[in-house]
Amino acid sequence: MDFLFGYFARNSLIENAFFERYGERGVALHFKNPDNWEKEPKTSYVYVMCPWISKYQWHAFTIFPELSKENRTMLCIESYGDWTKELHRKIKVPCIRP
Prior knowledge:
Elements: H1 2-9, E1 17-22, E2 26-32, E3 45-48, E4 59-62, E5 64-65, E6 72-78, H2 82-90, E7 95-97
Antiparallel strand pairs: 1-2, 1-7, 2-6, 3-4, 5-6
């Protein structure tokens, strides 16, 4: 039951996410907080699905506020497994993706 509540009530589509490489193994993901988030999110992680990698895989990552920008969040992703390595491979230059 908790899963269903979380899936339907706390699911947000981020339409414009900014991706950039961090060194040889990292990717940073920046996004504007969705309208249904409170000023201080009550969670410390999000599940990410990138349809241009896989429409069926969701991965959990720790989030933290961008201190230099109000109402924005970012997360850092290390290329470790197949999905994250594919993400790193596809982000060659800073870009905005859905």
